């Protein structure tokens, strides 16, 4: 093992280590708030990796429930816009959809840290804007994929006062991680659990932040509950040189939840196939397969216990420094996760609710306590939200808008906030458990999708790169098992209208969103109806627009499947091929 003396000198003991030598939170002295400290709020941002919402992981995290859910607001309809680690994180830190960052994969040529740099984003993302606003910024844990022990300095990540990044190819090795602090060379931690290392680093940066008399932003990004991944020099699959296994919990948590099982929802390993494309061809899982996936599920819950303790320690320390009441704590994940739903092996990358609807909890000054809201929010909203919370100017290039965080803002948002989520994906889907059926890597997983939630409707609509279509009514079919656009559908009406009429409106909305920029992403109906007379799906269903939507408007379609964002494969684009309805007349005109 290689240990850094600077690491121990700067960071101190983790929560478990303190308890082991008799230092409990109650025994620690309260550090008074210095008179020179800024009155601006601090931000602590906890970003887990692949944490589910629909598999009930939050129910197994008592400290997060106590300190965040009971003391803050749970955003029940929060979505990532792409269900994959690196592009989702880039969208989160830039406030832009993946088709605008052009970071759409976990590795080059379409993604990863080198792509983030080549797109100019290392000079134009949240920590830099926060520093411009007078904040100290700290980050520890996983930032992006393909941020490695060989390219960490090509260039260094910009924007952080202090940083200690997890690096590939060791990012997902729970007992064999590599971290790189500031501009020091990487340090390898063979045999020590990555969550304990991260916890110590996070507490150290919090101490550093408190000692400065400036407001601070601290991001903590544990790898849990991501699978344990070991990259192979010469693996059996030429398309996948990696070995995936369940996450490894801390030893003290390894015995927990012996009877826990994946929730047996209607869409868990269903008797009949569901979905389209490769999903529809998946075989039903055997009992042995299901039993293994239950074990995989339990290991995920166990791995998250270290994160729960981490949050407990952060809250304790903020309280003892007199900073808790002036600090926003934001908790979320990069994307969701499925295990067994639709017969899928453990993984993400799909547009199903388990993959895109993810945890978001915010506590802090003025945020309602023990509250839940149904307003629609996305990862592209988080950078604008943080800037708004600290009083910094927002950027015209944002594809998202600030999330409401007060009673009055949430009440207003129920009436006026947008109702849609733009979802997109390029490339592969991967089964991370055992290779039960000989096909764990699916390469034709490119799609555009729309999630829309409004008064009396709750739909998911998608178009795949092979031009198959899906439409699910989640009010009637929360498991997304009945594709209303399948040939054998028995449903011919939605919302009191013919099914094709509703589908045409959804397709036009997706047509705008799949290539939208800035305000068009936030107000796509206004792009179609500049007069502002259409604000939601109900408005768009007016008979006066039938000809416009059902006959004249271009449709979403692909010219071919690609593994990344290549414009000439994306089909017609709204900017040059779409229609705008001219209010006051019964005709449409080209943009």
Automatic annotation (TrEMBL):
<feature type="modified residue" description="3-oxoalanine (Cys)">
    <location>
        <position position="85"/>
    </location>
</feature>
<keyword id="KW-0325">Glycoprotein</keyword>
<dbReference type="InterPro" id="IPR000917">
    <property type="entry name" value="Sulfatase_N"/>
</dbReference>
<dbReference type="GO" id="GO:0018958">
    <property type="term" value="P:phenol-containing compound metabolic process"/>
</dbReference>
<keyword id="KW-0732">Signal</keyword>
<keyword id="KW-0378">Hydrolase</keyword>
<dbReference type="GO" id="GO:0004065">
    <property type="term" value="F:arylsulfatase activity"/>
</dbReference>
<protein>
    <recommendedName>
        <fullName>Arylsulfatase</fullName>
        <ecNumber>3.1.6.1</ecNumber>
    </recommendedName>
</protein>
<dbReference type="GO" id="GO:0008449">
    <property type="term" value="F:N-acetylglucosamine-6-sulfatase activity"/>
</dbReference>
<feature type="domain" description="Sulfatase N-terminal">
    <location>
        <begin position="41"/>
        <end position="391"/>
    </location>
</feature>
<feature type="signal peptide">
    <location>
        <begin position="1"/>
        <end position="16"/>
    </location>
</feature>
<comment type="similarity">
    <text>Belongs to the sulfatase family.</text>
</comment>
<dbReference type="Pfam" id="PF00884">
    <property type="entry name" value="Sulfatase"/>
</dbReference>
<dbReference type="InterPro" id="IPR024607">
    <property type="entry name" value="Sulfatase_CS"/>
</dbReference>
<dbReference type="InterPro" id="IPR012083">
    <property type="entry name" value="Arylsulfatase"/>
</dbReference>
<dbReference type="GO" id="GO:0005539">
    <property type="term" value="F:glycosaminoglycan binding"/>
</dbReference>
<dbReference type="InterPro" id="IPR017850">
    <property type="entry name" value="Alkaline_phosphatase_core_sf"/>
</dbReference>
